[in-house]
Amino acid sequence: MSNQIKIVIDGQEIITERGKTIVEVARENNIFIPTLCFFEGAEKKANCRICTIKINNRMMTSCTTPVVDGMEIENNTPELNDIRKSIIELLFVSGNHFCPACEKSGNCELQALAYRYQMMVPRFPYWFPKKQIDASNKKIIKEQNRCIACKRCIKTIFDEKGRRYFAFKNRGQKLEVVLDQVMGKTMSDEIAKKAMENCPVGSILYRETGFEVPIGERKYENEPIGSNLKG
Amino acid sequence: MNKKIIATTSLAGCFGCHMSILDIDERILDLIELVEFDKSPIDDIKKFTQPVDIGIIEGGCCNSENIETLKYFRENCNILVSLGECAIMGGLPALRNGIPIEECLREAYLDGPTVQLNTEQIIPAHEELPMILDKVYPCHEIVKIDYFLPGCPPRADLIWNALYALITGNKMELPYEVIKFD
Questions:
Q1: Which sequence spans correspond to the domains of chain B?
Q2: Structure pTM?
Q3: Which terminus of chain A is more exposed, N or C, with fewer CB under 10 A?
Q4: C-alpha span between A154 and B151 (Å, rounded)
Q5: What is the CATH number of domain A4-76?
Q6: What is the per-residue pLDDT across A150-159, written as a single tens digit (0 to 9) for each?
Q7: What are the sequence ranges of the domains in chain A?
Q8: How many CB atoms lie within 10 A of CB A139?
Q9: What kind of fold does domain A84-206 have according to CATH?
Q10: Chain B within 8 Å of A214 (Cβ-Cβ)?
Q11: Residue A72 has pLDDT above 80, yes or no
Q12: Is the Cβ of A131 closer than 8 Å to some Cβ of chain B?
């Protein structure tokens, strides 16, 4: 049996192979689907829901849904873009995101998506939750006010033996992504920098450097996130 | 065309947004052809003298006087605009929002490392002083706000584009580069 299948994204026919997810196929074909918790090569959890698409009038997460022959997908529609915008707004109000005081501002994926979807103000009331900053580690600061619990650090930051540096505690609304205190003591500069880079927001900060790129030259300042892709 | 009437105020803000209004540079000459300023720190008019078309609010609400001023603006302005991060989400003053008010006052007046001259250990409280609120509130959680212009400060081009559109009734052109949260 041939491995080749045909799917349709927003009217565009795409020939692809079985076994891939919708996000992967979209990227291969230069189609933009917003992602936050998705990280190429890491396990997929679908906990942020920002990549929501519609198949047969049903909302699905495109980072975990495998492509199937004949699948017709809605992606860049006003309805879906508004749902995605509302997810960004929820993330903004459920944490304490003070962009003017954040080192990651301009390079932050959450902020970049808010820019892309023109979030002028969240439609939900601000929660201003009380969060604790973990500044006990010598290499990084874990800024819980900004954590969106995407778990990308848990999924991608390991030592050479495959042991994880980050973990989560509690469940549901109380869930917190934390640095393993014992593992944290062995963290190298290289891993600390990678952790900051893999964090989509400003929740993991490499110590003693910051604001290196001047205003006007930061990653998402002049062009929206995903500008290299269409849709 | 009759000139539009504009009023501005700074609540719990740093006046950076007002500075950014001045950053429209020579376009300020076009602006004064189009508008007349009523109550505003720019002309130092303290009370409204006429109904206002566009009210511009900088800063969030951190005390009872901010609430009073904001409501006064809502009553007297046709259109109310939240200008900048503080008006929209509380901004840097809202960093205190997770901390109990008593702890904030103790830190500011008694226990803070830079407190030296308060030998009588007084935390100011008087009926003539505005009462501090339990937290800093975004303006739209107090009154209805019609437009939001983010930025810290909002780019001068954003202010100009938005104001020009509101004054002339044209569609707002807000290119990607002008909408920033920092």
A1: 4-96+134-178
A2: 0.95
A3: N
A4: 32
A5: 3.10.20.740
A6: 999 999 999 9
A7: 4-76, 84-206
A8: 21
A9: Alpha-Beta Plaits (3.30.70)
A10: no
A11: yes
A12: yes
Q: Which residues on chain B place their C-beta less than 8 Å from a C-beta of chain A?
A: 82, 85, 88-92, 94-95, 97-98, 135, 138, 140-141, 145, 147-150, 152, 174, 176-177, 179-182
CATH T-level fold of B4-96+134-178: Rossmann fold (3.40.50)
- Cross-chain residue pair A98–B95, CB shorter than 8 Å: yes
Give me B58's structure tokens.
């900088």
Digit-coded pLDDT (tens) for A76-127: 999 999 999 999 999 999 999 999 999 999 999 999 999 999 999 999 999 9
pLDDT at A2: 77
Cα of A51 to nearest chain B Cα, Å: 22
Which residue of A100, A128, A131 is in closest CB contact with B182? A100
Note whether B52 and B5 are within 8 A (CB).
yes
Contact B91 A106 (CB under 8 A): no
Asked whether A203 and A147 are in contact (CB, 8 A), the reply is yes
A115/B182 Cβ within 8 A: no
Which segments within B14-171 are labelled E, that is strand?
A: 35-37, 52-58, 61-63, 77-83, 132-137, 147-149
**pLDDT per residue over B123-155, tens digit each?**
999 999 999 999 999 999 999 999 999 999 999
Contacts of A121 in chain B (CB under 8 A): 82, 88-89, 138, 140, 145, 148, 150
